[in-house]
Amino acid sequence: MLKQFKRDMKDSEYKREQIKGTILFAVGVIIFTLIAGFLFRQSPTRRPAGRMDIASDFPEGVWFNTAESLSLYGQLRGHVVVVLFNDFNTLSDLEDLTRFAELNNIFHDQPVFGLVVLAGREIATADSLVSQWQIDFPVLADPDSLAMGAFGIRALPGVLVIDATARVAARYYEDWQCIPLEAVIRDLLDQGAAGRSLASEKYMPQVNLH
């Protein structure tokens, strides 16, 4: 009788330990799930768009040579957009600006829009540079490099090409002038026409009073 009682006690204790272990495991799983969910929600800023990903829009900032802030999803919807990122710190940057102007002239009557991001330049300095360098394109001052970060530009000069559906088509850097950009842009125009995503008219910005 005593042996049977001891055996029953051991079985009961074993079952209690099993139940306790199961409860602790379940609580651990719940806590892990809650922590993982919290960390996932705390994921920081959206990563820059990769090739053929939807591009971020331009961050809030001060624009020159345009009376209004520009948006890929507003005025520039349906355009092939080419953005030159530069700080215009050396005379060699004049070649970039000249090449950029040539592209604009080639596609002057098509929905291709060129603009400049002045990276790392304070507002007053950007205003002065736009005048000194006689930049005719719309210019976004980017003193904190927010636009560079949003579009995944890692170095200067940088050129970003966005297709008519606001997807990142290409990024080029120091040797961008060696790239046959005319052919790249024509290909994107053809794709936009085939997909009926091209704007019917080219957006022409009104000049502000800066």
Describe the structure.
This protein has 210 residues and is an alpha/beta fold. It folds into two domains: 43 residues; 132 residues, Glutaredoxin. The protein is built from five helices and six strands, in the order αββαβαβαββα. The N terminus is likely disordered.
Count the beta strands.
6
Q: How many structural domains in the coordinates?
A: 2
Principal-axes geometry comes out as globular
Any idea what the CATH superfamily of the largest domain is called? Answer: Glutaredoxin
Structural class: alpha/beta
CATH architecture of the largest domain: 3-Layer(aba) Sandwich
Distance between the termini: 102 Å
Residues in β-strands, percent: 5-15%
Q: At the third CATH level, what is the topology name of the largest domain?
A: Glutaredoxin
The order of strands across the largest sheet is 1-4-3-2-5-6
CATH C-level class of the largest domain:
Alpha Beta
Order of helices and strands: HEEHEHEHEEH
